Amino acid sequence: MRKKALIGALLLVAGCATAGNPTTSTTTPNTAPTTVEVTTTITADDAFPVTVAGDNGEVTIEERPERIVSLSSVATEILFAIGAGDQVVAVDDQSNYPAEAPMTDLSGFTPNIEAIISYSPDLVVVSYDPGDLVAGLEAVGVPVLLQLAANEIDGTYGQIEVLGAATGHAAEAAAVVAGIKSDLQAIVAEVGDRAEGLTYFHEIDDNLYTFTSDTFFGQVYGLFGLVSIADDADPDGFGYPMLASEYIVSRDPDLIFLADSTYGVTIETLAARPGWNALSALQEGRVFPIDADIASRWGPRVVDFARAVGDAVRALETEPTG
Predict the structure, then answer these.
(1) Residues 259, 264, 267, 273, CA torsion sign
(2) For the chain, what are the domain ranges?
């Protein structure tokens, strides 16, 4: 169940979840997520009512929210990072970080309006609207802020700032953004240019879903100069193609990252796949497990994701020639 949810989350990032269940076809939808540019009119943490902008348009919050329900694992991480954790009364069943988040059986993928309302929320934050969630909550007077998946790192900064304004933590949100920028700069500086031009394959699951350099997660790899082997296999610009095994073998990526290592995928199981034992990454030990959560969420832990990638690059004993 956890594995399916993580895969679904990444496909939702890609935009295909808006059309129904995540696809397992080799033909990827010709769609990509679009987001409204986030803006805010807030000038002080205690200035309420406030109006912020999300992907569902402008949202006015009359008073500082004290009963927040988060149906987004990313929003949950942001809320706690900016100091609004004490205002959160319930989070969805995928919000497993931080540990003190009040996890419930609420679903962000198949939300139940009556179950959400039972927590008497004065603000609901979601990253997915199946069509009637936002309208249903607004109909009963509950402010709801929709923040779709960030397409780029700057989008994360905007979402953090909007949530800060919406919850009375604008200053803390600004500090979190500044900290992320500083940490990313330091991590990249530590690695230097040793990975410039190297290729990688990031395995989301054993169906061989991955992402291109143009996605949020691909941009993190791009900070180090790494290039996804999927870039030439995504003509429609979907961003999250499912590759053929033969294609991966033919591209012989310099590094392989396994976000499905938690589910038993290892360098040994890779070697058992037809033709994979010839991959230079396997022969030279350039296969790296990577935490599935930090590799599927566009929130504050992008720093942890970048650090994991940077550690892998710095661990290379010899620089591949690929």
Answers:
(1) negative
(2) 50-183, 192-314
Q: Which CATH architecture has domain 192-314?
A: 3-Layer(aba) Sandwich (3.40)
CATH 3.40.50.1980 matches 50-183: yes
pLDDT digits (tens, 9 = 90+) for 95-126: 999 999 999 999 999 999 999 999 999 999 99
Q: Does residue 258 sit in helix, strand or coil?
A: strand
What's the one-letter identity of residue 267? I
- The burial class, CB within 10 Å (0-12 / 13-18 / 19+), for 26 is exposed
Domain 192-314 in the same topology as domain 50-183? yes
Whole-model pTM: value is: 0.86
Using only the alpha carbons of the chain, give its radius of gyration: 20
Q: Where are the alpha helices (DSSP H) in 140-169?
A: 153-167
Query: Taking each helix axis from N to C terminus, what angle separates 170-191 and 302-314, rounded to the nearest 10 degrees?
Result: 10
Q: Are the C-beta atoms of residues 288 and 233 closer than 8 Å to each other?
A: no
Q: Which amino acid is at 225?
A: G
- Token couple for 47: 């200035």
Q: What is the mean pLDDT of the chain?
A: 88
